[in-house]
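@channel sequence for tomorrow's demo:
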Amino acid sequence: MISSAWTILPDPRPMNKRDTLLALLALSTIPLAARAQQRGKLWRIVVLTSSKPDETPESDAYGMAFVAEMATAGFTFGTDYTLEVRSLDVYERLPAQANEPATQNADIIIPVSPLSAAIARRATRTIPIVCVAVHDPVGMGYAASLARPGGNLTGLVTFYAELIPKQLELVKSILRKKASRVAMLENSKVIGAGPDITQKIQEAAQTLGIRLQVVPVDSPAQLPQAFAAMKRERADAFITVADEMFYLERRQLAELALKQRLPSLFATRENVEAGGLMSYGEDSLEKFAQAAKFVSKIMKGAKPGDLPIEQPTKFQLTINRKTAKAIKLAIPQELLLRADRLID
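structure tokens (generated this afternoon):
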């Protein structure tokens, strides 16, 4: 699935750049060739995302956050650059699509996940890569160091194992500290998570007095069996190691969890919007705005290898009260007050 440019829709966050964004809508009616002649080079930015064919690319709000930040840096969508979303929509075919961005003559590639970062890295060592989420780029061999990456990749790291202790604490808070068995769905084929993540999660669970049931899921077809295994072990709740597959299959995960009345906790709010119970993770809107800062610097002449890889600073707690009601779970009031977003 290919989209020629991100659709611009209202951002849920209050913004002071609405006039700029409305101007972008008007600008979209001007032929790209004419706009390119006005300002010199028209940069082609390819976004590697993970939407399914029947969905809009990721979230239009993310595109809007990116465009707004680019405008702040002095670059206008359609005049100075275009955004082409390449949707890696079939999980099993992702590795086979590794050369796609390079063959499409991108000027900059933006992978939105560790898996798409790995694909971009395989595809090219020359085209600048600005990651929205990459796990352990030094350990994976993508960068010499966070302070000075050295190659063609920079951007933002994502925390996986580091977030799990907090997520397990939230599970205990939801179940009022009665959670003793928590299942964890893990894809053993995941690219970019690092070999020690399971051990770190096991250690975190042990510290909290939780018995962790690791449930391997290597394909979407295995999800029903995974939920059957969780039921046999009488899991009190489940979490997922952040992975492309669990994002792509968020609706199926929500439906299976609802059927078993099983509380769920994810790393991304999209899983909660699809019907999951709760998520705790990085602020994706903020990360796309940060990615735009990297892109604007590269467009001004900076080399990606000279731009330090940054860590996210904002994290969001999202709770779906409708799902909580459906599984007959009372969310503690203090947790509702702490939430950044409530879905009713």
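heads up for whoever presents: The chain has two domains: 2-158+283-314, 164-281+316-343.
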